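We modelled the chain as a single entity of 80 amino acids. Its sequence is:
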Amino acid sequence: MQEKKVALIGFGNVARVLARLLVEKQPVLQQQYGFSTRVVAIGTGHHGMALNPAGIDVEQGDCSGEQRAVSGISFHSAAA
């Protein structure tokens, strides 16, 4: 099965709902379309970027190497 890695630019209302739907609809994506998804990056203009090649747990807000938490996701500033 093919895995699609997803990077979100911005993490406002629309991106949060999209991330939640990607998690909730995994069984449908796998069974009907033959692929799964994994959010590996989230970038925002104000909060920096969260990046984890193994995947970001958008439900739990888990990202290793936490520096600053914003709405449950840890972001690293571009200057870091």
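As a brief sanity check on the tokenised model: The chain has one domain: 2-75. Residues 62-71 have pLDDT under 50 and may be disordered.
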